[in-house]
Amino acid sequence: MGQDTNVTVKVDTANINEINKKSKVDFSDDRNDPISVVGDPEDFESIVDKNQKITWTAVAKNGTTPVFIESVKREGGAEIMKQIARGNSHNSYTAKIKNKDFDPPNDTEDYSITIGINGYEGITGENQYGAIIFVGKQVAFMDNYQNDVWMRFPNAPFEIEGLSGNNNTGIVAYGESQLAYIAKGGTSWTLMAAPPFAIKGIAGDIFGVVIFNGTQVAFLNGYTQTNWGTTPAAPFEIDGITATTGGDPIIYSGNQVAFFNNTTNSWAMLAAAPFAIEGISCNYGSGPVIYAGSKVARMDIDMNTWQTVSDAPVLIEGIAGNSEKGPIIFSASNVYYLITYHPTPVWTKVTDEPLDPKTFVIDPRLRAKQVAR
């Protein structure tokens, strides 16, 4: 009988910076694995059992400052993990361990864990209207790339966990089991109808919002609505979702992709993505754009085929935009956009976003426990 693995990530929030981060983050777990060596957390390795779960919990060394786990991502080696997702609090992340045996030397998976001090960070928007970035409760937007100036929305009424929408109509945020919207040019946020379940992801805008958790998908047809509609259960456990007003939601898990057909009230599979997806944007009407690491691909929705796009100049942490008008990406404070795919795609950087995400990436490892056979 196997057991779960619980990893504690202790962060010296008062003193950490990008230069000294290796000496300010300590890893330990409940499997009697050696505690990470100070100054070398990348050598920390946790034992995991097949068909069990691993949970990461981040805590502050001072015991008071909130620490956010932004993401856990595969970085190479054996693919031991699946269903990597946020836990039930801002400082936790979980993954399932695959139900298979891994033999040396192919029994180790590298991964990265991104921790944040100032809150979650994320992106939304479309190239024709500009980018929108959030960190914690703060939201900044750039509605004109030529002017290259960031402006601010009023702070959200809660710590934002996810954001969707655009600069043309408005945005919707979720966090702390609440939803709120603010229209273009608005001066305050308005709370929306309580969601029917704990939200793991959001898509759409103020005229139609979609949320998910597991295989559940629910929607509101506008910010004034109070009754949530639901779809039939998704064909797999959802990792992420995208949609825009008037379009059908698109979901993914790994390299599986499906869309919801409102006409038939059913889910249908799309062509498998060329890589395990880490993030997705846009809607069925103009086709999704996806990323993993620095790789980007877009879908020709009419042909149901994927086309790779010029690699991004950074490791991507989030994506917005669409297949038609091009993607927008961010990594830490860096924001880039791509507005043409042909003949030679060129990523253009805008002024660094002003919200100071204060995020740090560490790269430990997992090792699958050996099973006597």
Descriptive account of the structure:
It is a single chain. With 373 residues, the protein is an all-beta fold. It folds into 2 domains: 5-116 and 360-368, Immunoglobulin-like, CATH 2.60.40.3910; 121-349, Neuraminidase (6 Propeller). The protein has no helices and 34 strands. The chain has strands at 5-11, 25-29, 45-48, 53-60, 68-77, 81-86, 92-97, 108-116, 121-126, 130-135, 138-142, 151-153, 162-166, 170-175, 178-183, 190-191, 201-205, 208-213, 216-220, 229-230, 240-242, 250-253, 256-261, 266-269, 279-281, 289-292, 295-300, 305-309, 318-322, 326-331, 334-337, 348-349, 359-362, 365-368. Strands 2-1-4-7-6 form a 5-stranded mixed sheet, with no helix packed on it. Strands 3, 5, 8, 33 and 34 form a 5-stranded mixed sheet that branches. β6 (81-86) and β7 (92-97) form a beta hairpin. The radius of gyration is 20 Å and the shape is globular. The two termini are 14 Å apart. 43% of the residues are buried.
Protein topology:
Elements lengths: L4 E7 L13 E5 L15 E4 L4 E8 L7 E10 L3 E6 L5 E6 L10 E9 L4 E6 L3 E6 L2 E5 L8 E3 L8 E5 L3 E6 L2 E6 L6 E2 L9 E5 L2 E6 L2 E5 L8 E2 L9 E3 L7 E4 L2 E6 L4 E4 L9 E3 L7 E4 L2 E6 L4 E5 L8 E5 L3 E6 L2 E4 L10 E2 L9 E4 L2 E4 L5
Parallel strand pairs: 1-4, 3-34
Antiparallel strand pairs: 1-2, 4-7, 5-8, 6-7, 8-33, 8-34, 9-10, 10-11, 11-12, 13-14, 14-15, 15-16, 17-18, 18-19, 19-20, 21-22, 22-23, 23-24, 25-26, 26-27, 27-28, 29-30, 30-31, 31-32
